[in-house]
Write a structure and sequence with these properties.
Radius of gyration: 19 Å
Structural class: alpha/beta
């Protein structure tokens, strides 16, 4: 393994070789708006439901889908029939919040763009972003209400049904292109956009991705859900050449492999093939990171695969797996933006996910005890 060390170092954010720099020192070098996220801000409506409820709305126990007409009544029924909790959500926003929580100081390292409605739920999202010390700049419009996501929990599974509403109204020319907003994009050195945003504004994603590529900054993306790999694969593959770090879980990896005709179900082979897809910025080798729930995390680097065992947890301590993937990415991003070696990024990712699944929603204690 020693001979591979230089390659791992090259994958750091800079040529600076301080692989052992203590986290406090690294954090001190951080400036506000170093991490940029853009996506669908949603208010999560979380409830423990029964199998009958899933069956009624044709939901799989562990899935993410966009709400269709047949799901319209689901949101009202969820609130009426079950004990619900409201949490500020949306995959990218969750990950940026977790990264900020892991970093702690300075505040507002994380920036977030997305679209909300001028309503009560929108006000809640603004308040929650402020509490999390994230620099959220929402595009506010009154055509559609703030988006919601029903998180239907059964055991340690969660089925997510997103009603994007306002989140679907994000407009590049009305928000991203504004000078004061684009300046925030330019300040960042790490970018993260969940695959879910591919259904909303491909042109916004490409503008950010191309900027990152041209300036040799890190652009990260998530496969996010099997349906993204299946039904939005053209959009996904337009962005793929700009992706420096690609995240996904085992079911997303399998869907991606099938759609790309990789002709393998082996997750390590899928990671290798995804890593080798064409890339615009050749100064950086792509990194592919696939999680597998309680099983080991897979990372594909230039010509090798590394595996990392996850932190053990007693199943009875698992409260809600809803935010596990977002938390994993948030932890990883907190390491990337502090220019930590990749194994430290994975360690931070595993720690974040382990904390979040012990709590309801993508929520966290006041401070991390991660060293």
């Amino acid at each position: 393994m020693a001979s591979d060390e230089p390659k791992a170092k090259k994958l750091k954010l800079s040529e600076d070789e301080k692989t052992e720099s203590p986290s406090k020192e690294a954090a001190a070098e951080l400036s506000s708006n170093s991490l940029f996220g853009m996506g669908n801000p949603l208010l999560d409506i979380c409830a423990v439901v029964d199998k009958d409820f899933l069956d009624k709305y044709s939901l799989k126990p562990n899935d993410q889908i966009l709400a269709e007409d047949k799901h319209k009544a689901l949101f009202d029924e969820l609130v009426k029939k079950f004990k619900v909790e409201y949490h500020a959500g949306g995959a990218t926003q969750n990950s940026v919040k977790i990264a900020q929580w892991m970093i702690q100081e300075p505040h507002k390292v994380g920036t977030f763009f997305g679209c909300i409605g001028k309503d009560k739920f929108g006000e809640i999202l603004k308040q929650k972003a402020e509490e999390a010390h994230v620099d959220a700049h929402y595009y506010e419009q009154d055509q559609e209400p703030t988006g919601t996501c029903a998180a239907c929990i059964t055991g340690d599974n969660r089925s997510l049904v997103a009603n994007l509403a306002a989140a679907n109204c994000y407009k590049k020319e009305n928000h991203l292109d504004l000078e004061e907003n684009w300046e925030l994009v330019e300040k960042a050195k790490v970018y993260y956009i969940a695959g879910f945003f591919l259904t909303v504004s491909l042109e916004s994603i490409l503008k950010v991705a191309k900027h990152a590529s041209e300036k040799n900054k890190l652009f990260c993306m998530n496969l996010s859900a099997p349906f993204i790999c299946q039904f939005f694969k053209d959009n996904l593959m337009q962005v793929m050449p700009y992706i420096d770090v690609l995240f996904g879980n085992e079911s997303e990896a399998a869907a991606f492999a099938k759609e790309q005709d990789f002709e393998t179900k082996d997750i390590k082979e899928i990671a290798k093939k995804a890593q080798a897809l064409p890339k615009v910025n050749t100064k950086r080798q792509r990194i592919v990171v696939f999680t597998q729930g309680k099983d080991e995390t897979i990372m594909a680097l230039s010509d090798k695969i590394e595996t990392f065992p996850v932190l053990k947890i007693d199943p009875k301590d698992i409260v809600d797996t809803n935010g596990a993937g977002d938390a994993f990415v948030g932890g990883f991003l907190s390491g990337l933006v502090q220019e930590k070696p990749l194994d430290q990024c994975v360690r931070a990712a595993h720690y974040s996910a382990n904390v979040i699944i012990r709590r309801a929603g993508c929520t966290f204690p006041e401070k991390p005890d991660f060293i």
